[in-house]
Amino acid sequence: MQIRAWEAFLNLSHKMLPSFFVIGPPRTGTSWLHQVLKARAILPDFKETRFFDLHFGRGLDWYIRHFPSCEESELPTGEVAPTYFASPEARKHIARTVPRAKVACIFRNPVERIVSLYRVKRAHGMIPWSFEEALFRDKELLESSRYATHLEAWQQLLGKDQVLPTLYDDLQEAPQAYLDVLAGFLGIQKFTVPSAAMRRVHTSESLAQPRWHVVTHTGSRIAEWLKSRRLNGVVAGIRESRIGEFLLASGMPFEHVSPDLSQAVYDLIADEIDRLEALLGWDLSRWRPSSSAVGQSCLLA
Description:
- The chain has helices at residues 2-16, 30-37, 60-64, 88-97, 110-123, 131-137, 139-143, 147-158, 168-173, 175-186, 213-228, 232-239, 242-249, 259-280; strands at 20-22, 78-80, 102-107, 163-167.
- By secondary structure, it is mainly α.
- A 4-stranded parallel β-sheet has the order 2-1-3-4, with helices on both faces.
């Protein structure tokens, strides 16, 4: 009886697992997409369970509890998870657990994205360094910008037909057309986005350097502990409170990135951009420093 019960649980678990993932990388509009897609698919209440890259050892039961009850629903199940893109562990675990899942990637001007990711991590006390120091001390900034390398790895594991590369530029310039393509690929019924939904979500522009790194860092550690126990609502409430505003937006503003530093960052990942152009046949000339505007405002972050 115990064996049969376990087999039944496994069958039910796999039925409840995601059929798609939007894997970013970070700072590519994934927070906005999570909010928009929640009404059209079954997603966790809060973005980033970190199951396939950090918490896989907690088991499928822990993961499935993040999703609203979906036994009677015909909506597809998915997760928006930007940290999965550059994670070999996430790729391996997804390929073994849900090998038929669809995966969508979003590629943004890597210099702009690195600056935005740095500001978020610095504001939340995750790192204590200046931008120049962080480029060489925080592996994620550059690793998550190895677009061609990680895209090829996902394609090799899941197959090209299960991996959709998209451009953040398209999401920013024509959100509705972008969503039409994304929904068709993910198996979501096409829908129209109301104009009220066309707004920034979690933009890095309002963030500031922390007044007290130790205090903010401790707060971020506590937030991660709460998230690992599925207490994301508590974290969201604190973030939106005056305490959260004080911790994240009351310090010194971030300086704009100079053209020379922008060029130096670009040089670090130029080969990846060239490979991505060749791999996909895209024209990415707008990403080159002469035609990019690092630090300027954008619709989605």
